[in-house]
Amino acid sequence: MAKRKNNNLNMGEALQEFIKVNKLEKGIDKVDAQEAWKKLMGNGVANYTTAVELRNGTLFVALSSSVLREELSLGKSKIIAMLNEELNKELVKKLVLR
Predict the structure, then answer these.
(1) E strand or H helix at 29, and its extent?
(2) Does 2 reside within a domain?
(3) Which residues, 6+ apart, have CB-to-CB distance to 67 below 8 Å?
(4) Which H/E stretch holds residue 35?
(5) Residue 37 is part of which domain span?
(6) 5 part of a folded domain
(7) pLDDT at 6 (0 to 100)
(8) Are strands 49-55 and 58-63 parallel, antiparallel or unpaired?
(9) Global pTM exceeds 0.85
(10) Which of 40, 38, 46, 82 minimizes the C-alpha distance to 65?
(11) N or C end: fewer C-beta atoms under 10 angstroms in the chain?
(12) Is the dihedral angle over the CA atoms 38, 41, 42, 47 positive or is it negative?
C-alpha cells in the first residue's frame, strides 16, 4: 500500500497562503501600521491623532495638536524604529507628521 502525502497546512500557514495568493499584504500592512501607532503612542497621543496612513513606506500621521507634532518630530527616528520592531518588519522608512 502506498503512503499518503501529508498536504495538510495549519491555520496560520493557510491564512498566510491566502493573503499571498490574493495580494492582500499591502492592505494588512496598512491596518497593522495603524494599530501599532495606537498601541505604541498610547491614549494620550491617540486622542490627538486624526488619521494614520501608510503609503510606499511612508507613514503619514495627522495630528490636531501642533505642540504634540513638534514634540514627536524630535524623536522621529526612534518612533520609526519602535514601529518597525512592533510590526516585525522594516515597513516604515519615513514618518511625516502633519
Answers:
(1) helix 25-48
(2) no
(3) none
(4) helix 25-48
(5) 24-97
(6) no
(7) 67
(8) antiparallel
(9) no
(10) 46
(11) N
(12) negative
The answer to whether position 9 is within a domain reads no
Query: What's the pLDDT score for residue 11?
Result: 87
* Residue 72 contacts residue 63 (beta carbons within 8 Å): yes
**pLDDT values of the chain reduced to their tens digit, one per residue, 98 residues:** 556 666 777 888 888 888 888 888 999 999 999 999 999 999 999 999 999 999 999 999 999 999 999 999 999 999 999 999 999 999 999 999 99
Q: Which residue has the cell 496612513?
A: 53
Please indicate, yes or no, if residue 15 is contained in any of the structural domains: no
Neighbour-count burial for 66-82, b at 16+ CB within 10 Å, e otherwise: eebeeebeeeeeebbeb
DSSP symbol at 64: S
What region, left, alpha or beta, does residue 88 occupy, with left being phi > 0 and alpha being psi -120 to 50 degrees?
A: left
Burial class (CB in 10 A: 0-12, 13-18, 19+), 15: exposed
